[in-house]
Specification:
The protein is of the alpha/beta class. The chain has a nine-stranded mixed sheet, sandwiched between helices. A five-stranded parallel sheet has the order 12-11-10-13-14, with helices on both faces. Strands 15, 16, 17 and 18 form a four-stranded mixed sheet that branches. Helix 6 crosses helix 11, helix 8 packs antiparallel against helix 9 and helix 13 runs antiparallel to helix 14. It has 14 helices and 18 strands. It binds xanthosine-5'-monophosphate (XMP). One of its GO terms (cellular component) is cytosol.
């Protein structure tokens, strides 16, 4: 395992991604992590960049023990300044923050092959990406320059005996052309890690872990939604403990068209998961009647979901006890690594813009212990896992769908007829996107129903009906997003079909707002 210490750079996740791509398992922890408290012994340590300057008041610092472990250390950008601070280099402030491309001239040391390992296989000059305000004016004693740029004489330094390296540029971003190779060289060549982190090895390891944690008779209950995360998690559980895993799908009345049936067909009929479908749509829709405030809608759906799920879990619990299997012990959650990172970041949790309902609230009244088989994985790793576990492509590549579903896509009041209009329009929209071969280029697309009326003309008749707004975005983490440049001919087909086929709609508009300042959902 390689340890990555996060100083809050927006690129820290990318370092983790690149190291795993090299086949090496790594963990990202806040820079304040105490080395003595680690639950593993790292084979190497990477210090990330940071939005801070090393001169800022309150600038974060690492446990000095990082440098006493005797394992190789690589400091990136701020990480390099942090090495200099600990090892006695001179740090200066750039007159202007340097941002963008630079040409790195590599300096080789034939008589010191160890420091040359970091840039092994790279050409003599390499295009790199810089983003920094501080730089080294002199290297600490014993460090050799292994790379420089026009503006930074000490753009890359290394120390043979201490096995410490520092680089001013960001190898984790794709703009640094040979960056991937640099990180590979560090973890494979310098830390001498084995490249044995693959999804197939993950499956074996995780199934074994689940079996050990749950025990030979333990039982697990978990909610599934038809999204890739909960499906992959459920599939892993099924593989590990068979029917001792009980999946629950709650129909909340605001899911997509035919969603419940199709999720059931895949999970229960095809993947053989022990699934119970609970139709609670009346309960949800009754409680939503007359509610227009988006946050209230979320609360109602979140709380009702917990209620319904807990009732169902209690029924399963009772049945299990009666059949001699014993009580349910665990609750499955499809938590991913970014959620874990977010909750342990030293910057603290980000401000709440919308309360994203998750099933965390379930635990308050339940005595169940949590089991989270995906907590080490990124989304694309979950997709790769889904493929290996034989889950349909359609499900593996599904766009995310919010817990409150169509309720936050019917602006204003949520009623059965309104939900049905939004549902049909959305279905046509997604169908046409798929026909045009664009589904995978888009991160998320949906149709929202606006509760305003506008005038139209159909045949010779005046119409006075509602508006459908089409949303499609490209995003990597859904924290920021760009609107998708949908081809006009595709928009034309979608608009024609929606207006012709969905009663109650006479106008279709396309949303061209990015996030920020807009959000992906309209509510
Ligand atoms: P926003 O609208 O905040 O959405 O830009 C970012 C991502 O989060 C999803 N989203 C939700 N997911 N419960 C969820 O499970 C929610 O209440 C919720 N609100 C937004 C949204 O679909 C997008 O992928």
């Amino acid at each position: 395992t390689v340890l990555i210490l996060d100083f809050g750079s927006q690129y820290s996740h990318l370092i983790t991604r690149r190291v795993r791509e090299a086949g090496v398992y790594c963990e990202l922890l806040p820079c304040t992590q105490k080395i003595d408290d680690l639950h593993f012994k790292p084979k190497g340590i990477i210090l990330s960049g940071s939005p801070y300057s090393i001169f800022d008041e309150g600038a974060p610092h690492v446990d000095p023990k990082v440098f006493q472990l005797g394992v190789p250390v690589l400091g990136i950008c701020y990480g390099l300044q942090e090495i200099a601070r600990n090892k006695g280099g001179k740090i200066g402030i750039c007159e202007r923050r340097e941002y963008g491309y630079a040409k790195l001239n590599i300096v080789r040391h034939a008589e010191h092959p160890f420091v040359d390992k970091l840039f092994e296989g790279l050409p003599e000059t390499s295009e790199v990406w810089m983003s920094h305000g501080d730089h080294l004016d002199s290297a600490p004693a014993g460090f050799r320059i292994i790379g420089s740029t026009d503006t930074s004489a000490y753009a890359a330094v290394g120390h043979d005996d201490a096995k410490i390296f520092g680089i001013q540029f960001h190898p984790e971003v794709t703009h640094s052309v040979d960056g991937k190779q640099v990180l590979r060289n560090f973890v494979l060549g310098i830390c001498e890690c084995e490249a044995n982190w693959t999804m197939a090895s993950f499956i074996d390891k995780e199934i074994e872990r689940i079996r050990a944690v749950v025990g030979p008779t333990g039982q697990v209950v978990g909610a599934v939604s038809g999204g890739v995360d909960s499906t992959v998690a459920a599939r892993l559980m099924k593989e590990a403990i068979g029917d001792r895993f009980h999946a629950v799908l709650v129909d909340n009345g605001v899911m997509r068209l035919n969603e419940c049936q199709s999720v059931k067909a895949i999970l229960k009929d095809r993947l053989g998961i022990n699934l119970e479908v609970v139709d609670a749509s009346d309960l949800f829709l009754d409680r939503l009647a007359g509610v227009t405030d988006p946050e209230k809608k979320r609360k109602i759906i979140g709380n009702t979901f917990i209620e319904v799920f807990e009732d169902q879990a209690a029924i399963i619990d009772k049945q299990s006890e009666l059949s001699g299997h014993g009580k349910i012990d665990f609750l499955l959650q499809g938590t991913l690594y970014p959620d874990v990172i977010e909750s342990i970041s030293f910057k603290g949790p980000s401000a709440t813009i919308k309360t994203h309902h998750n099933v965390g609230g379930l635990l308050e009244n339940m005595r169940l212990k949590l089991i989270e088989p995906l907590r080490e994985l990124f989304k694309d790793e979950v997709r790769a896992l889904g493929k290996l576990l034989n889950i349909d492509d359609e499900l593996v590549w599904r766009h995310p769908f919010p817990g409150p579903g169509i309720a936050i896509r019917c602006l204003g009041e949520v009623s059965r007829p309104q939900v049905q209009i939004a549902r049909l329009a959305d279905h046509i929209y997604i169908e046409e996107i798929k026909k045009a071969g664009l589904y995978r280029s888009i991160s998320q697309a949906y149709a929202a129903l606006l509760p305003i009326r506008s005038v139209g003309v159909m045949g010779d008749k005046r119409t006075y009906e509602q508006v459908i707004a089409l949303r499609a975005v490209e995003s990597t983490d859904f924290m920021t997003a760009d609107w998708f440049p949908m081809p006009y001919d595709v928009l034309k087909r979608i608009s024609n079909r929606i207006i012709n086929e969905v009663k109650g709609v006479n106008r279709v508009v396309y949303d061209v707002s990015s996030k920020p300042p807009s959000t992906i959902e309209w509510e």
